[in-house]
Amino acid sequence: MSEKIITRKIRRRDLLAMAGTGVIAVAGIGLVAGQAKADAAAVAKLMKTHIGGKTPKSGRVTLELPQIAENGNTVPIAVEVQSPMTSSDYVKTLHVYAEGNPSPEVATFRFSPESGKARVSTRMRMRGSQNIIAVAEMSDGSVYMGKKAVKVTIGGCGG
């Protein structure tokens, strides 16, 4: 049993037209996706999935961010949680959220009593001026939150 394969000549003009249509479609998808951004409601929803119905208390969490970031492509951030880091009282998890980025979740860090200190520093990309929120889950089940606003003069995530 043999199969018959039917071939058809494609003119150069038709091939270029098809390629052009694909390029425009891909570019359009990139433009639409770049418009999406998180907001306070998206952060609250994600926070609820991470910490459940617990209400975060203020205090213990310190965010170090510039008040004004000249370039959103690389914004330095440091977060520290005041904790003795003993086997009975330590920071289990630290979540960092951005209210104005395409995705609200920036990072999640896990600690143990052996960590010695609950402090992290890194750089993050920021789409524009927004609030950065850090939420610390403690070993006793309590939750603490810190929040800081950052003004970005040149956006890093397409803005």
Key attributes of the depicted protein:
159 residues; alpha+beta; Immunoglobulin-like; 6-stranded mixed sheet; 2 helices; 35% strand
Written account of the structure:
The chain has helices at residues 12-35, 40-51; strands at residues 57-58, 61-64, 68-69, 75-81, 91-98, 105-110, 118-124, 130-138, 143-152. With 159 residues, it is α+β, with helices and mostly antiparallel strands. The protein has one domain: Immunoglobulin-like. The strands form two sheets. Strands 1, 3, 5, 6, 8 and 9 form a six-stranded mixed beta sheet that branches. A three-stranded antiparallel beta sheet has the order 2-4-7, with no helix packed on it. The longest helix is centred in the N-terminal third of the chain and has 24 residues, at 12-35. The radius of gyration is 23 Å and the shape is elongated. It starts with 11 loop residues before the first helix and ends in a 7-residue tail after the last strand. The model is unreliable at 30-34 (pLDDT under 50).
